[in-house]
Design goal:
276 residues; alpha/beta; two-stranded antiparallel ribbon; 11 helices
Length: 276
């Protein structure tokens, strides 16, 4: 499953869900949680189930359910039971136990994308994920500060404060430790596409492999940021070819710089991501 861009769509807006199918996102997150008011959740469940049952070709369809243990989650389970599910986005996940509880309540072969940093306990469970049945791992910078009484997760310039830089880094390493996609959290200012491009570029630089979006205008920018350029691909092919020509070599010279096993691993990973 390719997950460069994952676009949130409110489950109670069927017209937006239909339009979102054509916007170029790799996945849609059909939201039954925060984007939907309590009174609108029954209609949202019905609309999401109707879309899933249509089994349309196009982007992967993931459903964000309500947190495990809530009455809303129990109602989500009833609505989604037996649906052709590709994936579930699990809010307030706290390690493998949360994933297991989800699968017990809602059996199926779908993938799970935990939002893995929304409670204080969740931060300490980041290393617990083993990757089994996961679509990836993502994080968020909104619920956690609210849970601990922080005034904000961001500096005046929009950058993260120190606690949330730590949480972001831990989520990134947790995803790679589990061997799954590392998905960057949302960029809230959907009008600032230049800022989004810079944010997404930093995410890819740091090791994230995709990013969530909150507005259709963000999809193309995110896709571009997480798609390797031809120059990157050409450089990776040269590294692979160089080591293939010198089997058993530990370090080699390429264009005046030394390349070794980590460079080869990175090149192979980049090429594998585009099917080479």
């Amino acid at each position: 499953m390719t997950l460069r861009s994952l676009l949130f769509v409110p489950g109670d807006r069927p017209e937006r869900m239909d339009k979102a199918l054509t916007l170029g996102a790799d996945a849609l997150i059909l939201d039954l949680e925060d984007a939907v008011a309590p009174a609108a959740k029954p209609a949202a469940r019905a609309a999401v189930r109707a879309l899933l049952d249509r089994a349309l070709a196009g982007p992967a369809l993931l459903v964000r359910v309500n947190p495990i243990g809530t009455a809303a989650f129990a109602e989500d389970v009833v609505a989604l039971s037996g649906a052709p599910l590709t994936g579930i986005v699990l809010p307030k996940a706290e390690g493998r136990a949360s994933v297991a509880a989800l699968r017990t309540a809602l059996p199926g072969a779908y993938r799970v994308l935990p939002i893995a940093t929304e409670t204080p306990r969740a931060v300490f469970a980041l290393g617990d994920y083993d990757g089994d049945g996961l679509a990836g791992l993502t994080w968020g910078a909104e619920d956690l500060p609210a849970a601990i009484g922080a005034l904000s997760s961001r500096e005046p310039d929009g950058s993260y404060t120190e606690p949330y830089k730590v949480v972001r880094a831990l989520a990134l390493f947790a995803a790679h430790a589990a061997g799954v996609a590392a998905i960057e959290t949302v960029y809230p200012d959907f009008r600032d596409l230049d800022g989004l491009a810079a944010y997404a570029a930093r995410a890819r630089r740091d090791g994230f492999t995709g990013m969530m979006a909150i507005h259709p205008a963000q999809v193309a920018v995110i896709n571009a940021a997480f798609t390797p350029s031809e120059a990157e691909l050409a450089a990776a092919r040269r590294i692979v070819a160089l080591f293939a020509a010198h089997p058993g070599a530990g370090a080699l010279q390429l264009d005046g710089r030394m390349v070794d096993a980590p460079h080869l691993a990175a090149a192979r990973r980049l090429l594998a991501g585009v099917g080479e």
